[in-house]
# Entry
Amino acid sequence: MQRIAVPVSAEAGPYSHAGAVASGFQRSPVGALMAATQISTRYLVSPGDGWRQVTEQQVLPGPGRDLYMRARAAAGDDLGEAITQLAGYRFVTYSPDVAVIQLASKSTNGGLVGTTITVRWSGGDWRLELQPNGGASPASAPLADLTYYTAFSGVN
# Structure
């Protein structure tokens, strides 16, 4: 598995790790951001049964989750070269109950892509909300640069 650096915050989480699951996020904008980056990365790239643990525990139930789990079970650990590194973020909306965050990622060929991630506060923690088609984002779009995004530091 290719390694992907994901941000953490001593104040906003994650506060605990159990296998592939990183959980316990502050109910704040930074906590929502940490959850969005951690969960949206881990449910995609955790090898073995780790992706299933993350999905079952940290993705909201619904048709999108069901579809994703069936497709991922069929694909196994063959994720191809679609792995990217987080490069930046910007908030679309935030409330204590739901946050919509655009994440910018750098692909293996160096191009930037923007995706929109939604997390909801449920059961005392942030949970990822998947689209009905099983994807995390309603759309992805190429980005020319990180204008309007806050860059994550420490990773090139």
User: Anything to note?
Assistant: The first strand starts at residue 16 and ends at 18. The beta strands are 16-18, 21-23, 85-94, 98-106, 112-122, 125-129, 140-143, 150-151. The mean pLDDT is 91.
